[in-house]
């Protein structure tokens, strides 16, 4: 994962004490071929149920539970909730399904401590009151598909314990629930690459009453859509501070996009919310919190809402943002206008070329090393040879293509620019010597190794806003499998002092056909 996952790891492991431990014990589970009379130590002698695999001591060493495809439900012999104890790491697979069959809780992380966090990877969880419940433990989850539950995921801090619980969700989908994610007390929530959709009430509902240091809510590249109430609702329920670390999130098509509420007026919101798209809501943002809060709003895009902001007497610290309705027009860097979405009615909230949101953040770019939803690297969207962040969650890219391609098949790239102009497409063996860096040039940031740079071809941008398209043939040589194709375009631009500007760069992994 990009930097949000690094932040996620830091958040979840803060305060943990690293201890030397024995090698992990490996347990196998197979609903189709296993038996609970086996020892579970090999695939050939796998257990049949997760319930059996969770038995045993909650002391070190770690227990790695490897779960084969199959339906893990009552008819398979499961007892609900399936409890993940301390020192448990549970790794599912494509087709591993936990079906609660209407149970109040399908999976519960209920270990006896906070360190190290439990893990639950690659499962479909369905048909329960609570899909995943976090009580006394911290847990990292990845690759989950939680659906058809009353509440998809819930975390609640137990006040009798000595530290905070942390809930981390990445690369997952939660859908078709009454509430997507709900947390209480001091449960810290961190997420990246999470999608929540088709929710009756709130997508994320956070009731905060914690005093722990660090970000209580950290989200990056989270997409929440089609919620009956709020996409994200954060409420302070005690006179305690809550730091936010929210960036590059897309919240659309809900009753309210983002709710920040301190009913008693005694707590504090701190941290930042930046590069957030709030679109197609009844209200984009509602805020009611005390003047002592230090929350910074930067790069916020509010458009296609009945009302962009309802803040009452709350003084928002907002800069470098676009509010289509014209609110906060006097704030530094705040502009009014149509953001020029590709197709908002079709839920495509990417920016078109020429959008006023492109390179709309005046300060030092936040995104020099953080790709956006569509894996776009740093981009000079207005081709003025100066890289700046776009307002909103989705970075506009002049050069686009998939991040994978197959050997022996053509690789298609799209180039966006002024109609009629001809772009030059370059390739190289790698990025510059220091991986991830750029070379600063009068034409912008050049992101390919200069010693192996060569012209690959040209492509002309047609009229009507369509991109120029180039098909790049990929050899079927087996030696190319596992290597990468590195690309960057140079486009004519009157906005650049040299008459030419570099696009963003692409990297495509070549895979077997």
Number of strands: 37
Give the class-level CATH name of the domain at 399-511: Mainly Beta
Q: Proportion of β residues?
A: over 45%
Biggest sheet record: 25 strands, parallel
Distance between the termini: 25 Å
CATH homology-level superfamily of the domain at 399-511: SOR catalytic domain
Q: What Rg, in angstroms, do the CA atoms define?
A: 25 Å
As a percent range, the share of helical residues equals under 10%
Mean pLDDT over the residues: 88
Number of helices: 2
CATH-scheme architecture of the domain at 399-511: Sandwich
List segments where confidence is low: pLDDT < 50 over at least 5 consecutive residues: 1-22, 364-376
Give the overall shape: globular
Q: From the helix content, strand content and strand pairing, which structural class follows?
A: mainly beta
CATH topology of the domain at 399-511: Immunoglobulin-like
InterPro entries: DUF1565, Pectin_lyas_fold, Pectin_lyase_fold/virulence
Organism: Saltatorellus ferox
Keywords: Signal
Pfam families: DUF1565
